[in-house]
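Quick log. Single chain, no ligands specified.
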Amino acid sequence: MIIRPHLNWFRMLLAWRGSVLPQLLPRLFLIFVIAIIALAAHDHLLPVSLNLNTTAPFSLVGIALAVFLGFRNNASYDRWWEARKLWGQLLNESRSLTRQALTMPSRELSEQDTAEFVAMLSALPHALRHQLRQTDPRDDLAARLPAALFERVMAARYRPAMLLLCLGEWVRRHARTGALDPMAVLAFDRNLNGLSDVIGGCERIASTPLPFAYSVMIHRTVYFFCASLPFGLVDSIGVFTPVFAVFVAYTFMAHEAIAAQLEEPFGTDDNDLALNTMSATIEDAMRDLRGEPALTPAGSRGESYLLD
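-> predicted structure:
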């Protein structure tokens, strides 16, 4: 994910990194070539005439297409924002559980006991990130979990859920020894249920994309509209047809490309959620509660940088 300071109007015009323009350049070049062909046909430089003498159909289709693209962008942004709220909840629940582990036991727990709890909790966002991205969590989990627990988690199909089970077993074990009273156990269980809601919510978003037929319909309509638009414009604006055709194509294609990125918020595109940094932030928040040093120094706020 690209994080930038607020840019002035001129620098915003020239912004490249983090925009969808680089991936659209080949498609826009194709529209430019089609516009040149339409212009050549209109000026009788080609032995065919492909001019559409009215822009009314394009106006009607363009308005309808803009409505559908707006709906798809709203649906995609809702998925992105819900995913961001779920990871914000993951941070809140992790902080609460760490605080409870440090302050709620009726007798002081050993450093090893609290370190074990925090290690499992620190590994959870990394396990969830890898599950959502379908990547290998071995290195991240091995660096945070004891060997026996690491093997147990790696053997599970749903590793974040297995870590939740291990956290619950930690609570049960200390409840049986009397270190946690029934009210403390209920408080732990409430936050563990919150973590379960976060995992389930992320899994729901990752496994339920927008209906494919709907996306295909919009995709086909956008490209047919953009490819035929030069033949509708050439009679009225002449040599400026390539300029306006490319600009209109950029508007529609960019909206579709942005929606496609936001639709899958857990990916690695420039505008997807910065899960690497969020995972490190959650872990660092728990380390801070324990009085441990930060994992990495904070970046400069005045720079443009790649957050994830």
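The longest strand covers residues 2-3.
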